[in-house]
Design a protein that fits this description.
The structure holds two protein chains of two kinds.
Chain A: E1 3-14, E2 25-26, H1 33-43, E3 49-58, E4 64-72, H2 78-87, E5 100-121, H3 130-143, E6 160-163, E7 175-186, E8 194-203, E9 206-208, E10 217-218
Parallel strand pairs in A: 2-5
Antiparallel strand pairs in A: 1-5, 1-6, 3-5, 3-9, 4-5, 7-8, 8-9, 8-10
Chain B: H1 2-15, E1 26-31, E2 33-37, E3 50-52, E4 55-57, E5 60-62, E6 64-69, E7 86-87, H2 88-91, E8 94-97, E9 105-108, H3 110-127, H4 132-142, H5 146-151, H6 156-159, E10 163-168, H7 179-195, E11 198-201, E12 208-211, E13 217-218, E14 228-229, H8 253-268, E15 273-276, E16 279-285, H9 291-300, H10 309-319, E17 332-340, E18 345-354, H11 355-369, H12 385-389, H13 401-406, H14 413-422, H15 429-440, H16 449-463, H17 478-496, H18 505-515, H19 517-538, H20 540-554, H21 568-594
Parallel strand pairs in B: 2-10
Antiparallel strand pairs in B: 1-6, 2-3, 4-5, 7-10, 8-9, 11-12, 13-14, 15-16, 16-17, 17-18
Classes of the chains: A alpha+beta, B alpha+beta.
């Protein structure tokens, strides 16, 4: 059995990065299902439940902006960390002066979405008590409670959220083909995590998200 | 979506016999030299062993573009030979080592030469096919006495470190004119591709296909000086879920080749690309239309180039909000802006919409820009985007187009293009850049037609100031009237000195008057009293006219006096008020002279 929730999420900036343009980031036009799932999980999640996104409503017109940021160019290697752990005195550091990279990003501005989703039990007793999880979730949304601040694609772009009862009409009209979008990552095999894609179509600002096991999702 | 549309465009280009794009496994490269050998690999003409293929274009020697077999990806610092062509490292195993610029020396590269010969052997053995030219080239490469003969040539110095092809006597101008040679390579290429194949889901086509690990590169300086791929992950901060390099974005070999080729085509074909400062903008349409060419002219036109008549009629009709019939229902237009960034290509903007909606937005842009002209014959009714952009650049006086473009502030081009294409507000920083230019520039460049049009467009679209095309005497807004006042005062000064002044109050006081009117204007009005006195004695009629104008404008100033400072958008209005009033003087003059 599954129960549905609706929340409104909005923010000044968002970047749902396309996997093929990861270094010089380019955002997708709209929120990806995996980003929607991340917002829901930030508010409430337990290993007993699994969020499944049904629909994303795009309320604001799609506007891009270009920003450039100085970032570091590499991650700390695991060998340097294990070395420090062993001898207790090696440095574990990256100095920006030696590792500076300027990265440009094409990000979204003034986004506002309504996420319609439901959760399913992921096996086990607790997952079957849907009423309980639903109540907890709605209470948390009403209070503005979350485990960590939900974000729109990347952590630096924080999201605001609130409960919504009636879904307003979007400013966008007409049908728009958004091309292949990242659906989510397939974590079933933890040694080989694979991306899943689907063909996204937005009709009057509403994107129907296919079920993860449907044939519209390509692996 | 970007890659998908580029790949679709490639398929259209491939089907169109008029356009020349390469197929997978081949590429158009810049070749400078050719060596002519006979069937046994001996150099045919020992006195002129190296033939120069370059054309002289002005000061430069331009290499010839020849379609040659090529693997995907760059020829990196590793050893990877090309088939029957390449640089001198591979062909003769010699390279010019220029690490010490004062003492370049010739370095032997036996491994590279071996790779060159090995590749020929491998093609023969894998495909089981052979061709006489293979033996000829192989013998040439194997023989030791070619180098002294080649050294005799006058092109020797240039020959080292550049691309070379072969011609075998009796087999065409280059070996690649032989269909069979190309066919053998095609077979080897597909065998080679399948062999090192990793199959997976391609995110461009959505199909299972052979994935590419190294992506083909884009030319024409999009990635800076070198050729770089469009999609690249060259720093490890981009890795996630343990996927390294290009595994983070699975793309099939055929899709990668398709979108790279179409992008290369767009970048090298006239009327499909514009370069403004470091940003390269390419555009193409879903179906065959003139829209791309029209768009090219609108973005690129310089002062001396007029628009073609189709573009003029197009612009005139879209300004009124009407899309010409031949462009209705013609599908979409795609605009992509690219710029280099640290050996990668960064996407500045991506715009896709129907040609009709694009035309509507362009029309709105030109409607916002409408303003009275300064030079009736020279100024264009529809300034091109480039003409607007250079108003933000300091190097205005330089005539060289590239020099001026280099000094356009970098983060303006992308946002401006987007505002014009999408009908959104102009970028916020634009007004401050223009006002700054206005304060600093001297002479006739300070407030010319294009700058005024641009400022007016920004004020109308971003700040809803509702400025009209020419002087609006009924407009009571304070900054506008102060600007008009300044123009009148300047005119009085000019007329009183019978036009013999070198520096009017405009040159000395314009920037301070727009920024701090309360301090400056009382002084200017004082100064003007002297000018009036002189004018009254010499041209009393004119003095009366000017005084009336002056009192009309001063009548709007409230009892609190001039404002102490003006906000940015008010400074813009000041500039427009000044410009409108000044142009109205010239209009009147024309009317008076006609009487």
């Amino acid at each position: 059995m599954s129960y549905g929730v609706k929340i409104k999420v909005w923010g000044d900036w968002a970047c749902f990065t396309r996997p093929e343009m990861k270094i010089e980031r380019v955002s997708y036009d709209v929120m990806t299902p995996s980003a929607a799932r991340a917002v829901l999980e930030a508010i409430y999640w337990k290993p007993a439940i699994k969020w499944v996104v049904d629909r994303i409503h795009v309320l604001n017109p799609i506007k891009f902006d270009n920003i450039r940021r100085n970032e570091i160019e590499h991650k700390l290697s695991s060998t340097s960390i294990s070395k420090a752990m062993k001898d207790g005195k090696s440095s574990v550091s990256i100095f920006i002066e030696e590792a500076r990279q300027q990265r440009a990003a094409m990000v979204l501005r003034n986004v506002s979405y309504i996420i319609e989703a439901h959760f399913v039990g992921s096996g086990g007793e607790d997952g079957n008590n849907v009423g309980k999880h639903l109540d907890i979730f709605n209470r948390r949304v009403a209070k503005g409670q979350c485990f960590y601040q939900p974000y729109l694609g990347t952590r630096e772009f924080s999201a605001n959220f609130e409960a919504v009862t009636e879904i307003p009409e979007s400013e966008l009209t007409g049908e728009r083909d958004l091309g292949f979008m990242l659906f989510d990552m397939d974590f079933s095999d933890s040694k080989n995590i694979k991306p899943m894609f689907f063909r996204a179509k937005m009709v009057d600002g509403v994107i129907e998200i296919p079920a993860p096991d449907s044939e519209e999702v390509f692996r | 979506m970007i890659l998908e549309e580029l790949a679709k465009y490639y398929n259209r280009l491939l089907e169109n016999p008029a356009t020349e794009v390469s197929e997978p496994g081949f590429s158009k490269e810049n070749i400078s030299f050719k060596i002519i050998i006979d069937k046994d690999g001996h150099i045919v003409d020992s006195s002129h062993p190296i033939t120069d293929l370059r054309d002289r274009k002005g000061k430069n020697l331009v290499p010839k573009k020849i379609t040659v077999p090529k693997f995907d990806g760059k020829q990196t610092s590793g050893i990877r030979s090309y088939f029957l062509w390449g640089k001198s490292h591979y062909i003769i195993g010699l390279v010019l080592n220029e690490k010490n610029k004062n003492k370049p020396f010739e370095e032997e590269k036996p491994k590279h030469k071996k790779a060159f010969i090995d590749l020929i052997d491998m093609v023969i053995s894998r495909t089981g096919r052979n061709h006489p030219v293979f033996l000829a080239v192989k013998n040439f490469a194997l023989s030791d006495d070619v180098i002294p003969i080649l050294k005799q040539s006058e092109c020797w110095k240039d020959f080292l470190n550049t691309f070379v092809v072969f011609e075998v006597e009796g087999y065409g101008n280059t070996v690649f004119e032989q269909d069979e040679v190309n066919d053998i390579w095609r077979e080897y290429y597909s065998l080679f591709t399948l062999e090192n194949a990793e199959k997976g889901l391609c995110l461009v086509t959505g199909e299972e296909a052979v994935l590419s690990r190294i992506l083909p590169t884009i030319k024409k300086g999009v990635g800076g000086k070198n050729d770089v791929p469009l999609v690249s992950c060259n720093i490890n901060i981009g890795e996630s879920y343990n996927k390294k390099g290009n595994a983070i974005s699975p793309i099939s070999k055929s899709a990668a080749f398709a979108f790279t080729e179409s992008l290369n085509y767009l970048l090298t074909t006239d009327k499909h690309n514009i370069t403004i400062a470091d940003t390269k903008i390419v555009f193409w349409t879903e179906k065959e239309t003139d829209a791309a060419a029209i768009f090219w002219e609108i973005s690129n036109g310089g002062e001396d180039d007029g628009y073609s008549s189709e573009v003029e009629t197009y612009l005139r009709s879209v300004k009124e909000g009407i899309v010409p019939d031949e462009l209705k229902d013609t599908g979409k237009i795609f605009v992509l802006g690219l710029a280099p960034n640290a050996a990668r290509v960064s996407i500045r903007f991506w715009y896709v919409d129907t040609i009709e909606r694009l035309s509507m937005h362009i029309g709105e842009h030109y409607k916002d820009l409408e303003i009275v002209k300064e030079h009736r014959d020279k100024d264009k009714s529809f300034p091109s985007i480039w003409q607007l952009l250079i108003e933000t650049a300091p190097q205005h006086a330089k005539k060289d187009r590239d020099e001026i473009t280099k000094s356009i502030p970098p983060n303006i081009i992308g946002p401006l293009m987007r505002s014009v294409l999408e009908g959104f507000k102009y970028p916020a920083s634009l007004l401050s850049v223009l006002i700054n230019r206005m304060r600093v520039d001297q002479g006739f460049n300070r407030m010319n037609y294009y700058r005024a049009a641009f400022i007016k467009a920004i004020l109308n679209r971003n700040y809803k100031k509702e400025l009209v095309m020419s002087l609006d005497r009924d407009r009571k807004s304070l900054p506008y009237c102060i600007g008009r006042l300044f123009a009148v005062l300047e005119k009085v000064q000019e007329e009183s000195a019978a036009g013999k002044i070198n520096a009017t109050i405009k040159d000395r006081y314009f920037s301070s008057a727009s920024a701090r009117p309360r301090v400056v204007f009382p002084r200017l009005i004082n100064l003007s009293q002297n000018h009036f006195k002189k004018l009254r004695s010499e041209k009393p009629g004119l003095a009366v006219v000017r005084e009336k104008e002056l009192t009309d404008i001063i009548g709007v100033i409230p009892s609190t006096g001039f404002p102490a400072t003006l906000k940015l958008e008010d400074q813009g209005e000041f500039a427009i008020g000044y410009y409108h009033q000044r142009q109205s003087f010239f209009e009147k003059k024309d009317v008076k002279e006609n009487d």
